[in-house]
Input
Amino acid sequence: MRRPLFLAILLVALGAVRAGAQDAPSDSLDLYLHDLADSTDQYFGGPTATFDTTGLDSLYQVARVHPLKLSTGGGMSVYPVVRYHRAEGPVLGAGASLTHVGGGTAQVWGSYGFSGQSGRYAAGWQRMLFHSGKTRPESRYESGSIGNGTRLDFFARYARETLPIMPEHAAIDLGGASALVSGLNEQSVYEQRGVATGLTLWTTDFRFQAGFRHALDQPMRVETEFSFFGDKDDVPFNTAAKHDEYSEAFGGIAFSRPDWDFGGVLDARDGGGDRWRLRAALGKSLRVTRAFRASFQVEGGAAAAHAPRQRLFEIGGARAVPSLPYGDEFGDHLLLGKLELMYGKGILETLNIGHPRWLVLQPFGFWNSGAAWQDPAQRDIVFSKPPEDAFHHAAGFGLALRAGVPDPDTYFRFYLAFPLGQDSGGVLPRFTIRVPLDLLGKL
Amino acid sequence: MPRHTFRQAAALALALGLGAASLGAAKAPPPGIPVLATEDTVRIASGALPEYLVTAPRVTLDEILRRVNAGEVRRDSLMRDQAFTRILKVVYRYDTTDSTKHPVTQLDDARRIFKKRPDRLREVPLRHKTPNKKDDVEVDTNAGMGEQVASFAFEPRERGNYQFAILDRKWVGGHVVYQIGFEPKSDLDPLPSGKVWIDTNEYVIVREEFWYHDRSPAPLFLERIDRCVVERSRVDGPWWVITRVFGRVRLAGPVLTFANLGKDRVSKTVDFSAYYTNWQVNRGLPDSLFVSKK
Output
């Protein structure tokens, strides 16, 4: 009789031991988290970690009757328009973006080119028609992007503006900085005046766009040869666009998976006759090692054999084969490949050279190869085999500084491009502001 | 037998049964029968129980990551509406060596916020204090129920960009809390490093810290982000929600120089903090609450 009782007491005692070890008070996790929270308070200190909750319930009752009016901000933003181009001279103007206009966003801007003595202006309106998923009300005034749910936008725009030839490879400032410093800006431009309207749909990982445009394209000529340090005789001519008035449909499909570092675009225009134009680009980045990342891009294009000059493709310029100037090589077909390898740390830090913390200059190297050619038989075909001698190659190296805006991967890049082989241009210094997969554009 | 004595006896019997069950659980099972691993963080008086080698595998890191994501998705999907009060602060921290430059609260904003599926959102401003008339600070609120600031590294599309490691494991009052560290796989990704605390009872993130120490996502604007802390608590029943968020940012030289061209001085170190209180979840908010009143 004693033995079972002893065992019972032992079992109870053991049970109590286990309960003591495992079944701590139910708020132990809370206490543990509170300890961590206390360390947070200590780190950030009083002004940051102290919150005044006094009277909030009363304030809510008051706010239900007399809502507190706050400036939402961002109703209107104004920005300057400043650029310089040999076909316009110095250009000054201003623009504004207004939200809450007819339930959408209106954009207007105007500028004046002092050498060309001509004005440029635009007015556009964009409205979100549909947006599913998680969003806040102000999202309707922001531009859409892949990965932010399904959204359908309508847009309409009238503009008289200066556009670059081969816009997909154009610099953000149309080469204005080099034009002002040396006069050696080869980017050519033309004038377009017209109206465009259409719909853009973002859904899952895709963007679809379809629209209609009626426009008049006109050539522009060199209006000024001024530069601070260059020779007037070195100022290049401005490639003449063909005078063309047309109505056209345009559309495109884009795909992006940022987690794969992969994306693609396909754009099409067709204004009838010799105006059709197709362009596609694919881009992929991958980690080579922890410290190195490689980016691959390929671009192809085809246009009507007798398409106006402003619809043809070029492979010169900082974003294509950088040892070639803009406009040197052009044709109704395009094939371009780009390979880039970038180092993840700043070179000054790696070499133990003293520098400000913000000056993180990442070295990179590249190899670009491309061809722009006319179909030998002048056929209106999409696929045409490029002649072997149409290919031009360039390689180079440079330093990149991450700007971080507007895209986290936007870099300021300064680099030297060296021609590989004959007829691939000369050694050229280049400066660009771009993302690694720059041929895809904004998605 | 008096009644209370019977109750005591019944309680004793129950205790005996539980004790026996707890001992039985510790006995070695027959060969071939699967066993559950017992956490080695459980403190048992040495010698009180015999030790047995348990060969069952621990939950793997991959399994933890998968379950955390599933837990977050489930949590989000079960929330139909939310109401909470948010207090937001921005504090300029001037040089602490100068006694005349105490921390200055640049923004103190309190709002009652209501959310309802699928995408309804209403904010009722309660208090808005700034030292200057000019107020450029805008606060975005997402209409969704998800809390990406706590779970960003665990989302399926982001997980591949990080390396994870188990840093620590603690037994806290019936909860096994894992501390998981993460850092970007590539030096070129503008992603933070950090660590999260996961309660494996529910596979929920209960706390997160992240930072940009060695590099900045935007060197021209941010020199570094010293520390961001996201704290979660259980509220209104079973719901784990963010209750406090803190961040300390050091501005980079170029943007600081530009910002200080004006009359108002900006400090190099800026603190952000948010406090979320008075939570109500799934209380059936009426649709009329979200109708705009002109």
